[in-house]
Amino acid sequence: DTETSDGKSATAGFPIRDRRFLRSSKPPRWWLNGDPIATAWFNALSGTFPRGEAFFVEAVKAHREGASPQLAELIRCFIVQEVNHSREHVALNRIATEAGYDMAKIDRHVEEMLGQLKGRPAILDLAATMALEHYTAMMAHEFLANPAHFAGAEQEAANMWRWHAMEEIEHKGV
Question: What share of the chain has pLDDT > 90, as a percent?
Fold first, then answer.
């Protein structure tokens, strides 16, 4: 908890950065240093995020009833961050599709994998979310700690990935 200017206790979450990327111009087809393999790897990862993050949001929502005010605020912040990430990856995925990448195939594969989880106890979805969020945060740390990952990248695309990485690290503990 933090203290407000009038001395009362306020529940603190983490920042919501409602950023939008890649709207004013499209990056080149191989936006990561002109490298088709590196670009394809990041595009494929991006292809997993919209459905994956929607799954994470639903898994967390299923367990928010009865949460303390502090945890409820962290959950709210987590959800908003994840929705924003999904929106930005939808935009990047649209650009990748226009550049000739088969993003629909990746999306269908994620949809099929998530479809196999239907009917499981909600706690298993939460456990999977926790594991995948921590894995994503480890990748995010690597992306931020090692500038070589985005050396030569189109600036807006690199900024989007860094923004996403920073927020993954922030909310991994939710």
Answer: 87
